[in-house]
Write a structure and sequence with these properties.
The complex is a heterodimer of chains A (about 800) and B (about 250). Chain A is of the alpha+beta class and about 800 residues long. Chain A is elongated. The two termini of chain A are about 35 Å apart. With about 250 residues, chain B is α/β, with parallel strands linked by helices. Chain B has a 6-stranded mixed β-sheet with strand order 6-7-8-3-9-10, with helices on both faces. The chains are: A alpha+beta (about 800), B alpha/beta (about 250). The interface between A and B is large, with 35 and 39 residues.
């Protein structure tokens, strides 16, 4: 080993605290690149392979009804490679042993036809549906798993108003439904409430009145085809048949969610490493600059002996490389592990035939390369000054730093400042860039913490809003199908039931011009107290006596406002249409929904007093007895206890919160400690002489420490509030990135989260402070002062 | 305490050393051993010495003779290994860290070879740094005037010459009206002419304020300005002589 390398190793051992704290910051950056990048690559690679293999279509269109012969005209469009015509239907599904009826999207499949290769359905367990089968269905994996459905099980489904018994022959998935979402069913976020099913074309066609016809089409384009032109031609052909709004793959609901997730991962995968590696570069910069300053004479000696500039430069870059190397050793396995955990989280949400997390070598090289680049950039300034130091100059002490009066003093406000206060403020002002970078580092630490855990504040807020303000019943009872209003009396007769408030839930498609969305209209009495119209801020609004109340998100999606008239398509009435006026808009967190006064809703349906269920208030202490009795009432499909839902919600949050808060706090602490510890070490090194002078002059240890920590305190005091603001800003960005028609979340940050951010900065300051206090006590006045500057 | 020494001053600034006046410092059998790794260095060996109020003492010795060690122990910067040092009857060798800090704060002024000014504070503020924590200080302006730097108060150290910086250091050391002024090679980093300006300032402080002053130097000539010259070699006092007259620093040449 060369002598210079030995020097490097010994210096590193001596500086291990600083090097390790920088390595930890680098490790976080590398881990972020590897975790986000590997998850992203895994999803992307898996998706692309699946889309390719299963021939995921490029253009989609739905229409009212067209003869199968029209398919030939679609196939004739230049650029079209394959056309699959389908029959699509919606259904209300009663799942055995389960609550409220779920909604199903049934798509036809013709395994023998050549078009079966488009959006090819892959049967995971069981078998493909057969032509002559007895209402055989394949069930999508999401729905099947949510209800533990297996081949051999049966489902009762209402299709076009007729009750059918469906027999499950297999569990399947398709590239169209990687995410459990179908066009027009955007409101169902829960796989228990919404499922995809496939039936043989020869079975579903007659059931849905589509024999020899189709109402949905998927088109695969030839390589080089012009998508926009094809869509225009498809629209022109389908317009007479109720079509005319074909859309490309980018707008396909499932694909849009997958792509959105990839975009988010990419954004996080750039922002997080940028924060950590930026801070690491800054730390390497200040630590190396100081090292070069303290080793002026050594550098001069090396050069006097004939060492070349490049050798000296490489030597000093070595310190940065060491930090990156240590960061790599910690960061790569950490990132790979986090990435695999992350991929596990996606598995229930995104269904692929195979979904294996992989950390690619190029990604690791990229992470390490970017980190090394950050280190070299950080080291550059210091290395350049080391390389360019002339030997003779290095032997002389550096010229003393030139200070100036503070800005406030020049403006005439310096009167009341003590000399020690001036020292602190001037040294802060003396190196504005370093001070700013330190402030930014502390601010980022606080910001990362706020942005990392505010989601739990939001979840708690939403939970509290939903389960204590919006829903106030003890039990929600749903009937298997709509029943006469007197059914409520049966419920009221049960012992322990204190109040009964009936409701009616009606699945519909709301249409305004060419825009439409599927929702459920919930009807309840205007004087209901257990379920009310409550907005995002928790304010209750009166139910208008007539007309439809829709959420602001739905109003935006349909581009309608209060007083406008919309068309409501009633699925329960075979698609019968009604016109209804929008009476009010409700600013709700959950995206798409509608409400009506119960009587008005029944009139709209042309029904007498009919209800789907009721919200109940129970006498205190009658819980399980009343629930048992309710379950035995004929026609009751489900009894949902609000407390139970609230508890499972709370449990879900508390399971996640500990893990996430811990990880985020560690990340924030690594940043804050890295910045504050290195800042204090350098301040102590640069100002050791000053501090020793003060001790000689009779300043106590405490007074000297106060000066040293005063600077740190000034940085904390500037950085922390800035960090809280940065955190709030990041929270708004995250909320905007996640907002969709399904839901949006308010940016709601509690004092507790802000305090946690302040706490992390405080603890980091304390750790840095204790380390400094120890060094300060070991500071030898005599030795420092005897040496020339 | 500082007031108690005043009656001993004479008009000329010379001090009468009467046998019945107790010394400011009473050093007995003082020893100091440094451990540097496996090696033990005996810096001081059984030093006996008294310093009297108002005296200007020059400690002569080659580098490594132990003179700085002695000064550091007198100033409460270092602790002895054996023996005793009494300051106005109080034992410094048994004082704890807190007591030593208080001692430095109230009673001792230090001047070092390398000035050790705070670069971020002006000359005046460097002096104020001390007056702000003292019980009976002079005004910082007054201290600067005493070393002839009234006009340079608003300058930062980087804007002052070496000699000027050292005189600011002297002003800073005496602004608290210390009982003793300890100077470790105060002219070591300065040229001849500038060095004399600094020595004049030290001599003036000693004469006008009656501050007991000890100056360390390896420059034999400087001994001529002292009341007393003590020579130290290999950790021992090898000579202790009194000058008949003090030669003004202006008249020194080396």
């Amino acid at each position: 080993m060369r002598a210079l390398d030995r020097k490097l190793l010994r210096d590193l051992a001596r500086m291990r605290g600083q090097i390790l704290s920088i390595a930890a910051v680098v490790a976080c950056g590398i881990a972020a690149v590897v975790a986000m990048g590997s998850t992203l690559q895994t999803i992307q690679r898996t998706r692309d392979a699946y889309y390719h293999r299963a021939r995921f279509a490029d253009v989609f269109a739905s229409l009212t009804r067209a003869p199968e012969s029209l398919a030939a005209r679609l196939r004739a469009i230049p650029g079209v490679s394959a056309v699959a015509t389908r029959v699509a239907a919606s259904a209300l599904i009663e799942v055995p042993r389960v609550a409220t009826p779920a909604t199903g999207y049934i798509l036809s499949i013709d395994p023998a036809a050549p078009s079966a290769s488009v959006n090819r359905v892959h049967v995971r367990t069981g078998r493909m549906v057969a032509r002559g089968g007895d209402n055989e269905v394949l069930v999508g994996e999401h729905f099947a798993e949510a209800h533990r459905l297996r081949p051999g099980d049966s489902l009762a489904a209402v299709i076009d108003g007729r009750l059918q018994s469906l027999h499950i022959v297999g569990i399947a998935h398709s590239p169209e439904f990687v995410h459990n979402l179908a066009p027009g069913f955007a409101q169902f976020a829960d796989s228990r409430q919404f499922g995809i099913l496939w039936m043989h074309r020869d079975v579903l066609g007659p059931l849905h009145g589509m024999e020899g016809s189709f109402n949905d089409v998927a088109i695969v384009l030839a390589p080089g085809a012009r998508e926009k032109q094809v869509i225009a031609r498809v629209d022109a052909i389908l317009r007479p048949y109720g079509g005319g709004h074909a859309y490309a793959r980018v707008d396909q609901p499932s694909n849009r969610v997958v792509a959105g997730e990839i975009d988010q991962l990419r954004a996080f995968g750039v922002v997080m490493p940028a924060i950590f590696l930026g801070v690491a570069a800054f730390l390497i910069n200040i630590v190396l600059s100081r090292l070069v300053a303290t080793q002026r004479e050594e550098i001069a000696t090396l050069k006097a002996f004939g060492y070349e500039r490049a050798t000296v430069a490489v030597h000093f870059i070595g310190y940065g490389v060491a930090a990156v190397a240590a960061g790599t050793i910690m960061g790569v396995p950490l990132g790979a592990w986090i990435g695999s955990r992350y991929t596990e989280l996606y598995k229930p949400v995104f269904r692929f035939p195979e979904f294996h997390h992989q950390t690619s070598l190029p990604l690791i090289l990229l992470a390490v390369g970017v980190s090394a680049l950050a280190a070299v950039l950080g080291a550059l300034g210091a290395v350049r000054s080391a390389a360019s130091l002339a030997p003779a100059e290095g032997m002389r002490p550096p010229s003393p730093a030139v200070y100036h009066a503070l800005l406030v003093e020049r403006l005439g406000f310096g009167e009341g400042l003590s000399s020690s206060m001036r020292m602190v403020l001037r040294s802060v002002e003396h190196r504005p860039m370093r001070t700013l970078a330190s402030v930014a580092g502390v601010a980022l630490a606080a910001g990362v913490l706020v942005a990392g855990i505010f989601a739990f504040d939001v979840a708690r807020y939403i939970g509290r809003l939903q389960y204590t303000i919006v829903e106030r019943e003890d039990v929600a009872v749903s009937f298997t199908r709509a029943r006469p209003a007197r059914a409520a009396l049966e419920l009221a007769a049960i012992e322990g039931v204190r109040a009964v408030e009936p409701f009616r839930s009606v699945p519909v498609r709301v249409r305004a011009g060419s825009r439409s969305r599927q929702i459920a209209i919930l009807g309840f009495a205007p004087d209901a107290t257990l379920r009310r119209l409550v907005d995002a801020d928790g304010r209750a609004h009166p139910m208008p006596p007539s007309g439809l109340v829709i959420t602001t998100t739905l109003a935006r999606a349909l581009r309608v406002g209060r007083g406008d008239t919309v068309t409501v398509e009633l699925f329960e009435r075979g698609g019968a249409e009604r016109r209804v006026v929008i009476a009010a808009l409700l600013d709700e967190l959950l995206g798409l929904g509608g409400y009506m006064e119960l009587g008005a809703l029944n009139r709209l349906l042309g029904e007498g007093p009919v209800i789907s269920g009721a919200n109940l208030a129970l006498d205190p202490g009658t819980g399980t007895v009343a629930l048992d009795a309710l379950a035995r009432v004929p026609g009751v499909a489900s009894t949902a206890s609000r407390r139970g839902m609230m508890e499972s919600f709370e449990r879900m949050i508390s399971e996640n919160i500990t893990m996430t808060t811990t990880i985020v706090s560690i990340l924030a602490a690594v940043l804050a400690i890295g910045v504050l510890y290195n800042g204090a070490r350098i301040a102590l090194s640069e100002r050791g002489r000053e501090l020793a002078s003060l001790r000689v002059l009779g300043f106590t240890r405490r007074e000297v420490a106060a000066l040293l920590f005063g600077e740190q305190g000034a940085i904390d005091a500037l950085g922390t509030p800035l960090g809280l603001a940065i955190g709030l800003g990041l929270a708004h960005l995250i909320a905007a990135a996640f907002a969709s028609e399904l839901y949006r979340f308010p940016v709601f940050v509690t004092a507790r989260t802000y305090l946690a951010a302040i706490g992390v900065v405080g603890v980091a300051s304390l750790i840095a402070g204790i380390a400094m206090w120890k060094r300060l006590n070991a500071l030898s006045m005599v030795e420092v002062l005897k040496a020339p500057e | 305490m500082a007031v108690a020494t005043r009656p001993l001053e004479m008009g000329s600034g010379r001090v009468l050393v009467a046998a019945h006046v107790p010394p400011v410092f009473e050093i007995r059998a003082l020893g100091k051993i440094y451990r540097m790794g496996a090696v033990e260095v005996q810096a001081l060996r059984a030093v006996d010495l008294d310093l009297y109020a108002g005296e200007l003492l020059v400690l002569l010795g080659a580098s490594g003779s132990g003179k700085s060690t002695l000064l550091n122990i007198l100033g409460g910067l270092d602790v002895a290994t054996s023996g005793t040092v009494k300051f106005n009857g109080r034992d410094l060798t048994t004082a704890d860290e807190r007591a030593l800090t208080r001692y430095r704060r109230e009673s001792v002024g230090f001047v070092f070879q390398f000035y050790n000014l705070i670069p971020s504070l002006t000359a005046l503020e460097n002096v104020a740094l001390v007056t702000e924590i003292s019980r009976n200080p002079m005004r910082p302006e007054e201290a600067l005037a005493l070393v002839g730097l009234s006009e340079r108060g608003r300058h930062f150290p980087a804007q002052l010459s070496g000699g000027e910086q050292q005189r600011v250091a002297i002003a800073r050391a005496i602004a608290k009206r210390p009982e003793v002024l300890l100077c470790d090679e105060p002219t070591g980093a300065l040229d001849h002419e500038t060095g004399k300006l600094v020595l004049k300032a030290i001599e003036k402080v000693n004469r006008e304020l009656g501050t007991t002053t000890a100056v360390i130097t390896h420059n034999v000539v400087i001994g001529e300005m002292a009341d007393r010259v003590v020579r130290i070699s290999s950790g021992r006092v090898v000579e202790d002589r009194r000058n008949e007259t003090r030669v003004p620093p202006d008249a020194l040449t080396w």
